Amino acid sequence: MAIRRALAEWRIGIVGLGYVGLTTAAVLAYHGVKVTGVDVDAAKVEAINRGEAPIYEPGLNKLLREAIERGTLYATTSYAPLREADIIFITVGTPSLSDGSINLGYVFDAAEKLADALAASTAEYPVVAVKSTVVPGTTRRVAGIIEEQTGLHPGRDFGAASNPEFLREGRAVEDTLNPSRVVIGGIEPRSASQLKEFWQSFYQRLGTNPPILVVDNPETAEMIKYASNAFLAMKISFANMLARICEKITGCDIVEVVKGMARDPRINPAFLGAGLGYGGSCFPKDVKALTAHARSLCVEPRLLEAIDWVNETQPHHIAKRLEELLNTLRGKTVTILGAAFKPDTDDVRESRALALAKILAERGARVRIHDPNPKALENAKRTLGPIAEYTTSMEEALRGADAAVIATDWEHYKSLNPALYTRLMRRPLLFDARRIYDPQTMKKAGVEYHAVGLGGDPK
Ligand code: UDX
User: Fold this and answer.
1) Measured between alpha carbons, how far is 311 from 248 in angstroms, rounded to an integer?
2) How much distance in Å is there from the Cα of 298 to the middle of ligand 1?
3) Which of 447, 417, 444, 450 is nearest to 431 (CA)?
4) Domains of the chain with CATH codes
5) How far is the C-alpha of 34 from the C-alpha of 12, rounded, in Å?
6) What is the position in ligand 1's atom list of the atom closest to the CA of 170?
7) 252 is catalytic
8) Residue 197 host element (H or E)
9) Which residues contact 249 (CB under 8 A, 6 or more apart)?
């Protein structure tokens, strides 16, 4: 397709300045696109306009500061400036409701508030692009809300499309600069082609040129996002289910089993890492949301339910194994190494480490939690409160402990000298719930090593 507009000519609006919205805004504005970001949180807006990112993502602060200095990014609590936007991305949160379905309230609220700006739009054909993870049908409902509020006709006076986001936390900037793919599904071809034109010119400038996939409608694009996350979560739960079987078989090791599986070119080894299960703001929520949506469509979601069941029970399974190894958890000091839901983040949302801490404390253990990132530890303390002790010192964490569990696969733990465990712990029982160590090395060093997915030693 011929590129008709220079990148600097595009006017972009972004509603919701969280992980996805702020990263998208900063990356685009840094590369010269004029971006207006809207958020309801005035303190957040002020911080952004000072060039300070309210969240931590590698590389984000630098991009944000430069974009603010160059004047290509401006944040505001007002929707009015969006009347100039050619494309308005909706990137607000979609939290879970108690039945697992998602709360689309913020998305619909954004649509309502956008309506006035669209009615007064100076753009030739403004397109509303939904980036928030939403169930199929939502983008069309967003267009319907705007139509009701303004009398404008979707597909004639304004466009709408689904343009889901696949970035990973901790790699948000990197993934935005170089995504695995860009998926677009418009309510009619013009919406999709305008979005495609924008992304194509942006990625051409960067020279990364990811595949841009235009699908027939927003529902298919919305479904691609859920399908991708549910599939990755399924791989993790599959590995954890297999791990439980391997643990019952003398000499069997899930790590070796996955290596063997991955020699089949049809099986990709990524996300087959057995462990404590998946956490974070996406997988747990998205699997539950897709399950609830399937039910609402009268589809039996048994496979989806099983993904969630394995994940929810995995910390219980690990707690049981610890209880067997220690005879009882009552009065035993157990150190949990890692609080963040994955390495290189301070995020503890749905962290399996915290789920495990809670179970151990309920069963009478004295729980200590360590994380090399002080902010992750602070977040853990705020979430769990006084049921555990918290420290960033390895010495304090391990001294006198009856057992330690690797709960997050931080690099920090991988490079530790095994002598630390044998020297400091009352009993050097290490349960590797993220498979970061070589079993033989640890055993030779005198560590009483047990791990997820690892059967007992042959006699
Ligand atoms: C995920 C998706 O990867 C991303 O594409 C989507 O947009 C948002 O959700 P994120 O939540 O940032 O991203 O984390 P990710 O790196 O995918 O890990 C999710 C969880 O799975 C972590 O708790 C991690 O420890 C766990 N995991 C991952 C495993 O237990 N085993 C694995 O093999 C891989």
Assistant:
1) 19
2) 29
3) 450
4) 8-215 (3.40.50.720), 228-451 (3.40.50.720)
5) 6
6) 12
7) no
8) helix 189-206
9) 455
Mutational pocket test of ligand 1: of 19, 167, 168, the residue with most ligand atoms within 8 Å of the beta carbon: 168
- Ligand 1 centroid to residue 281 C-alpha, Å: 9
- The DSSP line for 123-170 is SSS-EEEE-S---TTHHHHHHHHHHHHH-PPBTTTBEEEE----PPTT
Strand ranges in 311-387 using DSSP code E only, listed in sequence order: 333-337, 366-370
**Residue 167 beta carbon below 6 angstroms from any ligand 1 atom:** yes
Q: How many CB atoms lie within 10 A of CB 347?
A: 23
Residue with tokens 């330690």, as numbered in its chain = 404
Ligand 1 centroid–CA 346 distance in Å is 14
Q: Which of 246, 252, 282, 298 is catalytic?
A: 282
CA gap 88, 198 in Å, rounded: 12
Residue identified by tokens 């993934």 is 175
| Ligand 1 centroid from CA 228, angstroms | 11
Tens-place pLDDT, residues 360-400:
999 999 999 999 999 999 999 999 999 999 999 999 999 99
Q: Is 280 in the pocket of ligand 1 (CB under 6 A)?
A: yes
Q: Which strands, in side-by-side order, build the sheet including 333-337?
A: 388-391, 366-370, 333-337, 403-406, 429-432, 448-451
- φ and ψ of 34, to 5 deg: -80, 115
How many CB atoms lie under 10 A from the CB of residue 79?
20
CB 125 within 8 A of CB 85: no
State the Cα–Cα distance between residues 313 and 291, nearest whole angstrom.
17
Q: Is 271 in the pocket of ligand 1 (CB under 6 A)?
A: yes
Alpha carbon distance 48, 373 (integer Å) = 23
Does the C-beta of 342 come closer than 6 Å to ligand 1? yes
Query: Do residues 109 and 142 touch, judged by C-beta distance below 8 A?
Result: no
In 71-137, which residue ranges form alpha helices assigned H by DSSP? 105-119
Please give the Cα distance from 187 to 221 (Å, whole number).
11
| pTM for the predicted model, two decimal places | 0.96
Of 418, 332, 342, 330, nearest to 368 by C-alpha is: 332
CA distance 229 to 29: 28
Which residue CA neighbors atom 7 of ligand 1 most closely? 166
Read off the pLDDT of each residue in 395-415 and give the average, rounded to a whole number. Answer: 97
Ligand 1 pocket member 275 (CB < 6 A): yes
pLDDT in tens, 221-262: 999 999 999 999 999 999 999 999 999 999 999 999 999 999
E strand or H helix that includes residue 89: strand 87-90
Give the 3-state secondary structure of residue 120.
coil
